Amino acid sequence: MNRLATILALAAAPALADPDPEALRRLVRQDCGSCHGMTLKGGLGPDIRPAALASYQRDDLTTVILDGIPGTPMPPWRPLLSEGDAAWIADYLLRGDPE
Amino acid sequence: MIPAPLSSGTTKDRARSDFHLSRNTPAGGLRARMFALTLAGLALFAPPLPAGAQATGDLGLVVERASGSLLVVDQSERASIGRITGLGDLSHASLVYSPDEQFAYVFGRDGGLTKVDILAQTVVNRVMQAGNSIGGAISDDGRFVAVSNYEPGGVRVFDADTLAMVADIPTGSKTVGLVDIPGTKFVFSLWDSGETWIADLSGETPQITRVKGMGANPYDALVTGDGRTYIAGLFGEDHLSALDLWQDPPEPQSILPGYAEGREGLPVYKMPHLEGWALAGQDFVLPAMGQHEVLWVDARTLKETGRTPTHGQPVFAISRPDGRHVWVNFAHPLNDTIQVIDSVSKEVIHQFAPGPGVLHMEFTPRGHEVWLSVRDAGKVIIYDTETFEQLGEIATESPSGIFFTARAHRMGL
């Protein structure tokens, strides 16, 4: 079992595996950030702040996160994230972080 | 107070007299020794020590990525001795040192180029040179600092004293794998067009040699310690490409062709890094892309000599300076683990989990210790490279790269 899954499982222990905002926010900053920049304004991967993603619907964005973009370095996150997690991230990206 | 050796007061003597104490305990505090020095100075009625009397040869900097600061560390004390703040976004920041090991040039992801003085522990100068940078290098003569950029792409070269821009080399592409080679030259690769360029800065205007046909999407590159062989990792091909820089003009040579053929490409959650190449006798070692293994190549013939299956997608595969062992860390979600590979048997001889988010490893110049940054534990942890015993740890905020000043004297780092 991978570490994130472990964290999520622990955090969500008794209830359903609801997305854990703290772990996911960290994942976006640190691990999406390794390609998109910690502030998400771009690196090897493009800017994924709200203005840059304006043309995306939540569901399309969720699919991009789960399946990646084949033929590019954007990896599929399905092996590590549930659909609920990916949808939470899609919302988070579209909304932007107040911080 | 810890008794301090009353030595004659040169830094060399101090270092030597501590040696027998310091293997497992942090050596008697710096302050104690400074005090002793001051006493010695007074006793001789000598003029006070100049303000910069600290030598820099065993110092280093640890990038604290979230807080935009650098921790100044003392290698033989195994301790932090200060912090330099105000450097902007330092995620994935790297740095190089001036030849005298007093200054560091820090390349931030926000495009900031910052010059810091590690003795005064201050920012000396800072320019915003581009929207989004990926790395940098310093020329062999220490006169120029070059930065490669994702946005707007290309390489910019700055005067190492003043940080005034002296050359702008647009490439029309994300530019990666920037290294210095002898002759005041820099070499770098173009993600979008699959080229490698050599920029010669020894004359009035930069002379550019363009090498086409490196292959699709070079993502990083390294140069061997003699400055002769440049190797680019390719995202879009099932091989790497090498250039013999002693050839004129150099021609790309495919190495490890088809290394992943017939195997499913595994998702890569963090791109591998090719700097910090490892030479173990005849071979060097490279992280595979999309396969959980490292690949061994004969340094002269560039033919494959073996593969070692690894715990996950390797990010760094770095040889201990003597080349006997190679230390490997891994991409998310397996980035809590380290494997050590014997370079003779090419087998994993040690595996352990220092903690969550092991981002970087730095060997002491002769390799007796390795320092690991463990991001999510907020620590740098120090290990003995023979016994793998933990020797110490230093608290730091979200550490990433660790850079010892000895890098000043090595090519291509």
**For the terminal residues of chain B, how far apart are their CA atoms?**
40 Å
Task: Please report the total strand number of chain B as a whole number.
Answer: 32
What name is given to the CATH topology of chain A? Cytochrome Bc1 Complex, Chain D, domain 2
Strand percentage of chain A lies at under 5%
Can you name the CATH architecture of chain A?
Answer: Orthogonal Bundle
Overall pLDDT of chain B: 87
Beta fraction of the residues of chain B? 35-45%
CATH superfamily of chain A: Cytochrome c-like domain
Largest interface summary:
A-B, 23 and 28 residues
Uncertain runs of chain B: 1-45
Largest sheet of chain A: none
Largest sheet of chain B: 4 strands, antiparallel
Indicate the radius of gyration of chain A in whole angstroms.
Answer: 13 Å
Helical proportion of chain B, percent range: under 10%
Order of helices and strands of chain A: HHHH
GO molecular function, one term (chain A): metal ion binding
Protein name (chain A): Cytochrome c55X
Keywords (chain A): Heme, Iron, Metal-binding, Signal
Pfam families (chain A): Cytochrome_CBB3
3D architecture notes:
The complex is a heterodimer of chains A (99) and B (413). Chain A has 99 residues and is mainly α. Chain A has a single domain, classed as Cytochrome c-like domain (Cytochrome Bc1 Complex, Chain D, domain 2, Orthogonal Bundle), CATH 1.10.760.10. In chain A, 48% of the residues lie in helices and 0% in strands. The longest helix of chain A is centred in the N-terminal third of the chain and has 16 residues, at 21-36. By secondary structure, chain B is mainly beta. Chain B has a domain at 11-38. Helix content of chain B is 5%, strand content 44%. In chain B, the strands form 8 sheets. In chain B, strands 3-2-1-32 form a 4-stranded antiparallel beta sheet, with no helix packed on it. In chain B, strands 4-5-6-7 form a 4-stranded antiparallel beta sheet, with no helix packed on it. Chain B is globular and about 55 Å long. The two termini of chain B are 40 Å apart. Classes of the chains: A mainly alpha (99), B mainly beta (413). The A-B interface holds A 2-5, 30-31, 33-35, 37-39, 41-44, 68, 73, 75-77, 79-80 and B 65-66, 89, 91-92, 109-110, 131-132, 134, 150-151, 174, 191, 219, 235, 267-271, 332-334, 336, 356-357, 375.
